Amino acid sequence: MSVETLPTAPDGRPQARPNPLYDPATGAARPERPGPVPDPDVFCGWAGQTVRDLDPTTEADPVGILVNLLSAAGAAIGPGPFLWIGNDRHPALIWALTVGATAAGRKGAATNTVKRLLAATVPDFTAANARSGLSSGEGLIEAVRDGDGDKDPGITDKRLWVVESEYGVTMARGRREGSSLSGILRQAWNGEDLGVMNREALSATAPHIAVIGHISPRELRAKMQDAEMAGGTYNRFLPVFVHRNLLLPDAAGAPDELIDNLATAWRTVLADARRIGEVQLSPEAAQLWRDEVYPALCGDEADDGPLAEFTARAAPYAKRAAMVYALTDHTDRIHEHHLRAAWALVRYGRASAAHILGALADGTGDPDLDKLAAAVKAAAPGGLSGDDVYRLFKRRNAAYRADLTARLCELPGFAAAQVPGDGRHRTVYLFAPPE
Questions:
Q1: In this predicted model, what pLDDT tens digit does every residue of 356-394 receive, in sequence order?
Q2: Is the pLDDT of residue 76 over 70?
Q3: Better pLDDT: 434 or 122
Q4: pLDDT value at position 157?
């Protein structure tokens, strides 16, 4: 599948391009966009109309608002609607990593725009079921736990919309020795019953959990590890590059009247969607899926490396997103325009991953060498030390690590250097982009 790439300047760096999205009535300036641009098809139906209505009131990226809206809507709708993909039952759950620069990404602005609308639409859900603070698998199960007779009535409403504004912290917690967080998250994405076998014997039957994470590109690149991607934690998330979309120095937010009007419509949307069970494709959408979408998204055996791992669930995500688009349009049928919108959103996710991962997307074909190269590129200006290399590959022997670093130094731009240490010189590994 082709991935949109940015034009390059004479020095080889990607050039920014104008943002072609909406021209709000305010006439506010739109910054140039340094990454991929979503196809306008993603702003489909009632969800797209909501984003268009809110767009002039916030600096947030419209596509960031959109994925937050689809995720929150799926969580609030609950576990009733589903679709079959083979023998797998998929709920209306959208998990997304919104990835943008700390200052210019406006990740929080996108989430807070949707939170404000959600609070006006379903205040009880927002108060009780919109949470943050993922710290352990046991903690997540606790939030949607089953009852234990008279001792603990448990949680009746198993819907949860989790927003993690510092997803890098969550990633670090999931890597701790003995942590069950990554495994429990994978189960939750699947809509499976949750449980851990320990003295507490925690369990949660039929949970319905959606997750939104915020992270910067640099932090994501630095924290990703091949083992975690291969385990499938990250590819449960749709990666979405976001960037400040407007410059609004005197922004006052959306008028109360606009929020109230949208909330009135959304209450009906969510109530209607909760009554739906199985969702199916219309004949036209089914034909589009067979002829174009599935062949483009299912990949082939030649696909390998971090980009392929990060986007391995592109095909099921296309159907999941199409289902949420359909549900928010008051229908239990995925029509062609819903599937095209979802397909465009998944393509944007893949283009986002390629942009975010940068050189990792191309790779060398050797996962360990790619991992080392990425760590050196993400290291501080002082370089990556030999001790850092040991910590990255401590399960490998010294001869393997020596061969790996030697092969790294054969790649363009990478080099080893000797720097003064405590009484002796030490080796660090550096990267400088080739001229």
A1: 876 444 555 466 777 888 899 888 788 899 899 998 888
A2: yes
A3: 122
A4: 95
Q: What residues does 425 pair with on adjacent strands? A: 420
Cα 262–264–265 angle (5° rounding)? 65
Shared-domain flag, residues 85 and 131: yes
- Domains: count for the chain: 2
* Angle of the 62-77 helix axis to the 107-121 helix axis, nearest 10: 40
> What mean pLDDT value characterizes the chain?
83
CA dihedral over 317, 100, 359, 381, signed as positive or negative: negative
205/21 Cα distance (integer angstroms) = 42
- List, as own/partner pairs, every contact residues 414-420 make where C-beta atoms lie below 8 angstroms and the sequence separation is at least 24, other chains included: 414/373, 414/376, 417/383, 419/382, 419/383
**Tokens 């020596």, residue located:** 402
Please state, in angstroms and rounded to a whole number, the distance separating the CA atoms of residues 225 and 410: 22
Tell me how far the alpha carbon of residue 39 is from its chain's centroid.
18
Confidence of residue 1 (pLDDT cuts 50, 70, 90): very low
Q: Say which residue the tokens 């305010």 belong to.
A: 26
Give the CA count within 13 Å in the CB-facing half-sphere of 6. Answer: 24
Q: Is residue 28 part of a domain?
A: no
Q: What percent of the chain has pLDDT above 70?
A: 84
Spatial distance between the Cα atoms of 263 and 274, rounded to a whole number of angstroms: 16
- Asked if 98 and 64 count as a contact pair (C-beta separation under 8 A), the reply is yes
- Of 326, 361, 396, the last residue of a domain is 361
Residues 420 and 297 occupy one common structural domain:
no
Kindly state the helix (H) or strand (E) to which residue 384 belongs, with its residue range.
strand 384-385
Q: Tens of pLDDT along 219-246?
A: 887 776 555 554 567 778 999 999 988 8
Closest to 124 in 3D by CA, of 101, 102, 94, 157: 157
d(CA 123, CA 116): 10
The separation between the first and the last C-alpha atoms of the chain, rounded to the nearest angstrom, is 30
Residues in Cβ contact with 82 at an 8 Å cutoff, skipping those fewer than 6 apart: 89, 90, 91, 92, 191, 277, 278, 279
Q: Is 10 within the bounds of a domain?
A: no
Based on the domain organization, do 297 and 196 belong to the same domain?
Answer: yes
Domain span at residue 185 reads 40-361
Length of the chain: 435
Residue 12 or 72, more confident: 72
pLDDT band at 351 (very low <50, low <70, confident <90, very high): confident
